[in-house]
Amino acid sequence: MQHKIKHFGCLLILMGVVCIAVIASAQNSAQIPTPPQAKAVALVGGTVHTLSGPAIENATILFDNGKIVAIGSNVTVPADAVSLSIAGKHVYPSIIEMVSNLGLIEVDAVNASADYAELGDINPNVRAEVAINPDSELLPVARANGIGMAVSLPRSGLISGKGALIQLDGWTWEDMALKAPVCMVLNWPRMTNFNSPWVRVSPEQQKRRREEQLKALSGAFEQARAYQKAKEAAGESGVPFHAVDARWEAMMPVLKGELPLWVNASEIKQILAAVDWATRENVKIVLNGAADAYMVTDLLKSKNIPVIVGGVLNLPSRRDEGFDSPFALPLKLYEAGVKFAIAGGGSWDVRNLPYHAAKAASYGLPVEEAIKSITLYPAQILGIDDRIGTLEAGKDASLIVTDGNPLELTTHVEKLYLQGRDIDLNNKHKALYKKYRQKYIQRGHVAPTDSE
Fold this sequence. Notes:
This protein is α/β, with parallel strands linked by helices. It is 32% helix and 21% strand.
């Protein structure tokens, strides 16, 4: 009897947690995605930071049908266009988060809200974009700080699957997917042992696990190449039709050099092993995390391997490193001529991405380079800089209007446009702020403003 009661109690708790997650996710469904741009829009009188050239003061930026039509100080605005004065304001390209789980998780502590991991070590067939939750509360929070696009990634096993670049507004994943896939995620095995009191796995077991993972990785690529060879030969005399295997089919763009592997590798031994392996396998890679990338900048530059700095607001990797090692990493990559982008990572904290770039700027990275590291350079690494990353005629009208430099904590993002659509910047954080401000106004602790 007690056994049944115990299991019934656990079931009730589980149902309660799931209900909380579902209710929390559903609350934001009232925020309606913005329809496609219907009329031309002209933003007049602001400073436009194109990032493809010098800033243009007292400029007009005109966009229609989701594309930028013209930028300059003498732009003719059509009579039927919506003209908005932005005197004293600044216009920048929309910010891009390179490493996130946005849309794939809602509450870290609630497993039922997470959809970024699959069972098994080899899952190249996984597609992040089809699992995106357009009603996530986290999307409006990121948008409110100027992040209009993000790469959402699976993150389990060795080969996790394919990541996608999404716009943070839309009814469905098809609406939101800007480019999919953009990468195949590879989690490189740790090449050194953990030697801490809290680690309960012996060095021998760690070594054995590492060898098993490397063997599994090599085996996966061997099977994928064998599948590729068999598929290409199918139909030839005496060669039978080869059945489709979703896992190895997903690997074809990687083997052909059309899709890069994003290798999660931070320590130097991981980086060296991954670069050596990629050279032997003749595949394109992008290093993600890469805390020790500053040690091998010549190698990375010679092989044209981009780096995604996995967060600047971090602690040093080792006890004997300088406290500023993560803050100065972007500067070291910049000075060495290594292509890089800055990522914040995560889901709920994606909104802090501009401040990762700001920290790098405070430790020597030129301010414009810091801004490019979260706009233009991500677009270049993703191979979509013909559409986003800078403000130029013919590109997507995906931009932000601010009252200052977006790297500054005191700056407010006043407008966000995605392909010309004026995106709602309200979110749960703002709603709760307004709610509890009213509480203190009603109790006489805070004086209301004229608009309240």
